[in-house]
Amino acid sequence: MNIVVAIKQVPDLVEELELNDSGTDLDREWLKFKVNEFDEHALEAALLLKDAQGAQVTVVALDNGLDIDKALYAAAAKGADRVVKVTGEFEGYVSSHAAAKALAGVISGMSPDLVLTGVQAVDDLDGQLAVLLAHELGMPHITVVTDIEVNGSTATVQKEYGGGMVGEFEVQLPVTLGIQAAAETPRYVPVAKVRRAMKSTDIEEISGDAAGAGAGFEVTKMFKPETGQGAEMLSGSADDVAARIVEIIKSKGV
Amino acid sequence: MEVTREIFRHFPKWMELTFYIVAFSAIGIFLYGFYRRYKKYRRGRDSGRFNNLAGRFSSALKKMATHETISKRDAVAGWGHFLIFWGFIVLLIGTTIIAIDHDFLEAVFGISILKGTFYKWFSLAMDVFGVAFIVGLLMMIFRRAKKPPQLDYARVDLKKGEYDRKGYTVDDKIFAWILLAIGITGFMIEGLRIAVDMPSFEVWSPVGWRLGHWFRGIGFTSDAAFKGTYWVHAVAVMAFIALIPFSKAMHMLVDFLNLMFSDPMSARRLPGVTEEKMKESMGYIKLEDFTWSELMDFDACTKCGRCHVACPARTAGTALSPRDIILDLRTYADEKMGTPELFQQTFSGKQNGKGKEPALAGGIISQDRLWSCTTCMACVEACPVGIDHLNTIVNLRRALVEEGDMEDMLQDTLQNLGDYGNSFGKSDRMRARWTKGLDFKIKDARKQEVEYLWFVGDYASFDARGQEISRKVATILHRAGVDFGILYEAEKNSGNDVRRVGEEGLYEMLAEENIETLNDAKFKTIFTTDPHSLNTIRNEYPDFGGNYTILHYTELIANLIKDGKIPISNKLNKRVTYHDPCYLGRYNGETENPRDIVNALGCDLVEMPRNRSNSFCCGAGGGRIWMDDSHMTERPSENRIKEALSLDGVDVFVVSCPKDYAMFTDAVKTSGNEGKIEVMDIIDLVGEAVGPEEAAVEEA
Question: Does CATH place domain B420-559 in 3.40.1130?
Answer without folding.
Answer: no
